[in-house]
Design goal:
Helix content is 30%, strand content 26%. Strand 5 and strand 6 form a beta hairpin. Strands 1, 2, 3, 4, 5, 6 and 17 form a 7-stranded mixed sheet that branches. The model has no long low-confidence stretch (mean pLDDT 97). Helix 1 packs parallel to helix 7, helix 3 runs antiparallel to helix 4 and helix 3 packs parallel to helix 5. By secondary structure, it is an alpha/beta fold.
């Protein structure tokens, strides 16, 4: 008879491993099944985020930012550094060390749940009827366990274009883009989304000629238009060549080059690059996840269908993170994982998808929460806007980080905050003031009447809130 658990989590990413830890904390016998194999060939918890996503990309972003500042910005501070060079293999090794530290840390966290440690199981899991889980190990052996509750946290995988198949030598997915060991002279990127902009920034700072081809006619259509415009202006200054309305139709490898064919408003164009990063989005990793007869349904995009509390159509089966509706963000997955574990334990659990923050870790950073002006116009909502530039903030000027702005959108009648949008230095940390305010149904006036320390970047939030009512102090209204 198969071993039975109170909770079996399928997937060890930021949704799955967090759900497993919380379930174990609540006294539930818990197992976490994960199939990821690390760069060293061994099982590695943490999913895409810790292994080939959030964490390693931020390590490279920070290394490249340090180098760029040393060679370009430090002279403004009176700091000179001649003949500086980047040791790319050392940069990659640092990234790998950080990844290993955090993936290994999850195993330690599993062991550290007092009285009820999480049982990690390496292998690919398939849910069968009756909440049985078949696990194919990396050695080919198949085992079976059962659960009173199952949490599907399978995550997502990169979308592959039929005319640009990944070989992770010349044509790269997100993982391949993190392991380039020499600076490519010419880097092409398909997709001006989060991954495309972040990885394009890394290699541009290190000297690559970067061309980003975006099929949509608008830049960062998901962000507020004013923020997208401010960011695009800075990226152009940095030398990122972003071509909009550029639809790629063909790639061909010739020797050590990739030849692309794309069409834009001027007709058919060609581009030759040394490396090509394909970053056109991700899809739910649900292939092989479900056997017939489980009662769990998939939608037209291959995502697990769930209700507002992450319940599937099968009793005792839940799903969270990238494999369900909502934004594909690590922190959203984690919060869903905690909520589901608490619901299983009979506690209240809920995630407000309307207050999930978004961040792009370029320079300047881009962050937002809530609705954009375009969305509110489409919904027929009356609103008012206040904005304030970092160029008028003393701390930003002292830091030599004056690019960007903060924009707050509030309801025209109630003044309730509907959206907060930022572009600038460290806005990934600042956006949470907006998240907290919105979670508590705060108004722009609430933010305007909170004392903000001086001098800080957060004063831009204060001034933008004041500007909603046309009473900003350091800006003409």
């Amino acid at each position: 008879m198969s071993e039975q658990f109170d909770v079996v989590v399928i997937g060890g990413g930021p949704g799955g491993y967090v759900a497993a830890i919380r379930a174990a904390q609540l006294g539930l016998k818990t197992a976490c099944v994960d199939a990821f194999i690390g760069k060293d060939g061994k099982p590695a918890l943490g999913g895409t985020c810790l292994n080939v996503g959030c964490i390693p990309s931020k390590a490279l972003l920070d290394s490249s930012r340090q180098f760029h500042n040393l060679t370009h910005s430090f002279k403004d501070h009176g700091i000179s550094a001649d003949n500086a060079r980047m040791d790319v293999p050392a940069m990659i090794a640092r990234k790998d060390k950080i990844v290993k530290q955090f993936t290994g840390g999850i195993t330690t966290l599993f062991k550290g749940v007092k009285g009820n440690p999480v049982t990690p199981i390496a292998g690919f899991a398939t849910l069968k009827p009756g909440k049985l889980i078949s696990i194919k190990g990396h050695d080919g052996k198949v085992a079976e366990i059962s659960a009173r509750n199952v949490i599907l946290a399978a995550g997502s995988v990169p979308i592959e274009l039929p005319f640009a198949k990944y070989d992770n030598k010349l044509i790269l997915d997100n993982a391949g883009g993190l392991d380039v060991t020499t600076v490519p002279k010419r880097l092409g990127v398909i997709g001006a989304g989060v991954i495309g902009l972040e990885m394009g920034s890394v290699w541009r700072r290190l000297g690559s000629e970067v061309t980003i081809l975006e099929a949509l006619p608008e830049f960062l259509a998901a962000a507020d238009a004013d923020i997208a415009k401010a960011a695009a202006r800075e990226f152009k200054k940095q030398g990122l060549d972003i071509k909009l309305g550029a639809k790629v139709s063909k790639t061909e490898i010739k020797g050590e080059e990739v030849h692309l064919t794309y069409a834009d408003a001027s007709g058919e164009q060609t581009l030759v690059v040394d490396k090509l990063l394909v970053a056109v989005g991700r899809k739910a990793a649900t292939a092989g996840l479900l056997a017939e007869g489980t009662g769990v349904q998939l939608d037209e995009r291959g995502r697990v269908v769930v209700d507002d509390h992450c319940k599937t159509g099968a009793d005792g089966v839940w799903a969270i993170g990238d494999c369900v509706r909502g934004p594909m963000l690590a922190h959203k997955a984690s919060e869903e994982g905690i909520a589901v574990a608490e619901l299983i334990a009979g506690l209240p659990g809920h995630v407000n998808l309307d207050t999930v923050p978004w961040v792009i870790y370029t320079e300047p950073e881009i962050a937002w929460v809530g609705k954009t002006e375009a969305q509110l116009k489409a919904e027929g909502v009356d609103y008012k806007v206040g904005s304030f530039p970092f160029a008028a903030i003393g701390r930003a000027v002292a830091m030599n980080e004056t690019a960007g702005m903060v924009k707050i959108i509030a309801h025209a009648e109630t003044d309730r905050i509907l959206g907060v949008h930022m572009c600038g230095a460290n806005v990934s940390e600042m956006i949470h003031e907006g998240v907290v305010a919105m979670e508590f149904n705060g108004s722009a006036d609430d933010l305007a009447r909170i004392c903000h320390a001086h001098p800080t970047l957060s004063e831009a939030v204060h001034e933008a809130a004041l500007a909603v009512d046309k009473r900003a102090i350091h800006k003409g209204n």
